[in-house]
Amino acid sequence: MVEILADLALARRLERAEGVGGWRFVEARSRLRPDGGFASREIGGAMAMFDGTESPITQSFGLGVLSHGSDEELAELEAFFAERGAAVNHEVSPLAGVDLHARLCRRRYVPVEFTSVLIQELHGARAACGEDAPETGSGSPGTDSMVRVRQIAAGEERVWAETSARGWAEDHPQLVDFLHDIGEVMASTEGTWCLLAEVDGQPAGVASLRCDAGVALFNGASTVPALRRRGVQRALLAARLRLAAEQQCDLAMMCAQPGSTSQRNAERQGFRIVYTRVKWHRAPGDGS
Questions:
Q1: What is the structure's pLDDT at 39?
Q2: Cα–Cα distance measured from residue 38 to residue 89, given in angstroms and rounded to the nearest whole number
Q3: What share of the chain is helix, strand, coil (3-state, %, to 5)?
Q4: Distance separating alpha carbons of residues 115 and 64, to the nearest angstrom
Q5: Apex 143 CA angle, 167 and 260, nearest 5
Q6: Which residues pair with 110 in a beta bridge?
Q7: Euclidean distance between CA atoms 199 and 227, whole angstroms
Q8: Which of 237, 267, 286, 288 meets the CB 3.0–4.6 Å disulfide criterion with 107?
Q9: 240 near 59, Cβ under 8 Å?
Q10: CB within 8 A of 208, min separation 6: which ones?
Q11: How far apart are CA 164 and CA 204, in angstroms?
């Protein structure tokens, strides 16, 4: 068994997996709204996505890890977003090096967000899920206590999106319509497994999974407020670990706000933090 270390090679795998996830999301958005001007571009290896001026998907991944992070690359990335009237946001791994972070400061970027990047090696995924977890039906990932987790069927994309929005709306009521929209696109994204958790037959939470080059990316998790503290997120994590192992992935990845409930749940399920990423932001028109 090859030991997985928190080095540049690992950062490249992880940042590429998340970048490809965003890329596929924008492709799905473009299929649903071909006149929306949504776009993706690879610049020096970094992946830039435009999903609208207010979308959290509008940013780049892999700067300084999949690319050199030179001034020339930064200028081209900045032009990509400026042409579309968007702020410039780069998710940057610390493995990109201190020189890049200093360069971003010189170009008038400011740090606006930290993200814990967590992984779990999947040779132990069965043990983490529980070998004896009962199946909920053919192809379904499993159950946890009173929670039933299953993959959504064709035609259930709206249910998945509505459940996702209910989970986030309590903290962000002004974003309900936007959250519905994001959920419907995610449920239509190629190569994405969307899971629905139910408690007593009622939608309780959602999560998603996509695989890229052996990395299983876990995201899109939320629980409706009335059914929290029922083990919903634990069940969704365990279900995705099982599904990722079935897809022959050797590594599971998820991202969380440092110190959050999501991070603690992941650590309890065997994930470990490999690095903390910084989101660098520059407002439209704020040139260097």
A1: 97
A2: 16
A3: 40, 30, 35
A4: 17
A5: 40
A6: 281
A7: 8
A8: 288
A9: no
A10: 186, 192, 193, 194, 195, 218, 219, 220, 221
A11: 9
Q: Are 216 and 240 in contact (CB under 8 A)?
A: yes
Quote the tokens at residue 25. 């999301």
Tokens 């400061």: give the residue.
105
For the chain, what is the total number of helices (H) and then of strands (E)? 8, 12
Per-residue pLDDT of the chain (288 residues; tens, 9 = 90+): 567 888 999 999 999 999 999 999 999 999 999 999 999 999 999 999 999 999 999 999 999 999 999 999 999 999 999 999 999 999 999 999 999 999 999 999 999 999 999 999 997 544 444 433 333 333 334 444 589 999 998 888 889 989 988 887 777 677 677 777 887 888 888 889 999 999 989 999 999 999 999 999 998 888 999 998 888 988 999 999 999 999 999 999 999 999 998 899 889 889 999 999 999 999 987 765
Q: Tokens standing for 44?
A: 């020096």
Distances (CA, A) of 135 to 129, 138, 143: 12, 8, 7
What are the backbone angles phi and psi of residue 146, rounded to the nearest 5°? Answer: -85, 5
Q: Which residue has the tokens 């606006």?
A: 112
Compute CA distances 78 → 58, 59, 108, 165, 207, whole Å: 12, 10, 12, 31, 32
The CA distance from 58 to 78, in Å, is 12
Residue 33, C-beta contacts closer than 8 angstroms, at least 6 positions apart: none
Q: Across-strand partners of 47?
A: 42, 61
For residue 229, how many other CB atoms are within 10 A of its CB?
Answer: 7
Sign of the torsion formed by the C-alpha atoms of 45, 46, 50 and 56: positive
Q: Which two tokens stand for residue 177?
A: 């319509």
Nearest-angstrom CA–CA distance, 134 and 245: 17
Residue 53's SS3 state is coil
Q: Report yes or no: 25 and 18 within 8 Å, Cβ to Cβ.
A: no
State the amino acid at position 32 in one-letter form: L
